[in-house]
Amino acid sequence: MGLGLICQNSDVIKLRALAVAATLLAGLAHQASASGFLTSAVEGTRVLTCQRIGTKLGSVRIEDCLTSGARPTGGLSVEGTPLLMREYPPVAGRRPIGRVLLVGGIHGDEYSAVSIVFKWMEILGEYHSGIFHWRVVPLLNPDGLLRSRAQRVNAHGVDLNRNFPSPDWHAATEDYWVRQTSRNPRRYPGTGPLSEPESLWLAAEIARFRPDVVVSVHAPHSVVDYDGPPEPPQRLGSLSLRMLGTYPGSLGRWAGVHMGLPVVTIELPSAGSMPAATEQRTIWVDLVSWLKERLTEQPRPEWTFDAITAGGSAGAGAGSR
Ligand SMILES: [Zn+2]
After folding, report:
1. Dihedrals φ, ψ of 162, to 5°?
2. How do the domains of the chain map onto residue ranges?
3. CATH number of 3-297
4. pLDDT tens, 263-288?
5. Which of 137, 164, 205, 294 could form a disulfide with 254 if both were Cys (CB 3.0 to 4.6 A apart)?
6. What residues does the ion ligand 1 have nearby, CB within 5 Å?
7. In angstroms, what is the span from residue 1 Cα to ligand 1's centroid?
8. Residues 6 or more apart from 147 whose CB is under 8 A from it?
9. What is the whole-number distance in angstroms between the Cα of residue 321 and the centre of ligand 1?
């Protein structure tokens, strides 16, 4: 690697750090704004986005999306689709034992990983007791899902789960993509860490919310995977723990391994069809009971937000996500 590349990387790193800061500010400004015009514009984009999601997914109706309470955050996809989120805030008189960020649809062709999050939002909408402070993002990659033929990658052709700023991003991501995947277009990591608005928004959201645990839903490997400080859940519903390892640029390697923020990855058995209703509920109940145990009986994870790093390496993996 020549000096030119190192300098270029360091410029890119500075630019991305600025972009993270700008995205953070945009999110805060969006939350703070209360003008009537903006409110109705936000409502319009919420309805439109729900219409598109409800039309695309067999298991989520337009009304389900609308009543989920997921709202535009100010974050936008490459094609300008709002990134929706619902907050289930602390309940008066009860101090939450932890903050949990739940994310579906990082990969646009994993339909079930979006639908099940909407189902869990129905449960939360009815039973949110204030034990946790939740933020739920049902669909991080709307452009991938909402095109006529759904795709894993975003509209730039980037696998968002290879675009997070693990310390080895510059050293390992492209090499891994070329050598290990033979330039598989479904796993293209992008031109730089957080080059994509969707991954950049999620990194900024992690910095804003400072979750104690991140839960990320995928399909179709039918396991529970985990990255971060122990102890992982051994089983959620019929899904058993199998540590698949991480990849350069994956959420698990950046947040879980590098920052020490626990990341639970739920891999549903099928991308195209949902688990049975009882299994959907059992996975949820098991997740909540693991979160209770994890956040009350073990020391709260202490992690340090580090959006942009360069050099070094963090672990190795051999899974297939
Ligand atoms: Zn996936």
Report:
1. -125, 10
2. 3-297
3. 3.40.630.10
4. 999 999 999 999 999 999 999 999 99
5. 164
6. 107, 110, 218
7. 31
8. 108, 155
9. 6
